[in-house]
Amino acid sequence: MADTILFVHGMFQNANSWNGWVTFFYERGYDCVAVSWPLHDGELSALRSHPPEGLRDLRLQTVIDHYVGLIKAKGIRLSPLDIPSVA
């Protein structure tokens, strides 16, 4: 089983931002997962010119829950190095 890399974008981006890196690592044998935040699917230019309804109400906890659900659904195993420490 290949290691999996989960790509998570930031605000004002989406999963398409990772296309080049997904290709790079996939060609080197990694499984790659890049999924957009809720309400961030589509072309960036269209999203910027016509933000989806509800975007202003999107909360960080919603984004976290989105990725936790994805990790569980895909069975992605996190190693200790993948979990950031908060001091």
Q: Your description of this structure?
A:
There is one protein chain. With 87 residues, the chain is α+β, with helices and mostly antiparallel strands. It has one domain (4-79). The protein has helices at residues 19-26, 44-49, 60-74, and strands spanning 4-7, 31-34. It is flat. This is AB hydrolase-1 domain-containing protein.
Q: Could you give the distance between the termini?
A: 33 Å
Overall structural domain count: 1
Shape: flat
Indicate the proportion of strand residues.
Answer: 5-15%
Number of helices: 3
What is the tally of beta strands? 2
CA radius of gyration is 14 Å
Strand order of the largest sheet: 1-2
Structural class designation: alpha+beta
Helix coverage percent: 25-40%
What's the SSE pattern? EHEHH
- Major sheet attributes: 2 strands, parallel
Quote the average pLDDT: 84
Low-confidence stretches: none
InterPro entries: AB_hydrolase_fold
Protein name: AB hydrolase-1 domain-containing protein
Give a quick precis of the structure.
This protein has 87 residues and is α+β, with helices and mostly antiparallel strands. It has helices at residues 19-26, 44-49, 60-74, and strands at 4-7, 31-34.
